[in-house]
Predict the 3D structure of the following.
Amino acid sequence: MIPRHQKYLFGILLAASLAMGVTLWQLREHAHRQLLAGQDSAPTSAPEVAPAEEATMLVASDSDGSLRTQSFSLPLPADPGARARAVLGKLLELYAAPDATHAAPGGAASVTQVFLLPAPQIGGAAPSQSQPQTGPQMAVVNLTGSFADSHPSGIETEMLTVLSISGTLHANLPRVTQVRFLVDGKERATLAGHADLTRTYLTGVAVQPEGAHL
């Protein structure tokens, strides 16, 4: 004979189990409807990417200390700053490859930002504001500290990196006539002990005849 209070307790537990089952079923149906709604609202086509264009790189060679022009097809954004970062990212990817002609670890992530500013006039004069949209520009290239810290040390190898970056910027953005360098957003004395990063580099110095040496 089952005591009456146990019958009551059994009934309460049964009712609670049924109620929980109903609640779980309702939650499952709600989650399923949300999933279907998310699928319906998802884009049916891939996001638009930048069109591929021909980019020109001044690629350094450690074997003879030269800069040689090479062309690559790259997706290049319309924004000049993003475009500059894209071409430099490709250049540094070449240097990080196992068969690189100029070894420099880090790859595309070594360039975090490229700022384009009106170029100061030679002699330190303020930049002209008469034609801000068409005048010469200065590119400020922000490199990562890890790239600078791991870069091979030596005046020639460091200068090849600096000049190839400067020349590549000018080859793809002809208005860039001057280049400055930052490391982690701050001024740094040298790249890896030799190449001066406190000075302004003129891109015309890097744009030399094919295969020219330092």
About this structure: Confidence is low (pLDDT under 50) at residues 39-47. Residues 52-206 form one domain. DSSP finds five helices and six strands in the chain. The longest helix spans residues 4-41.
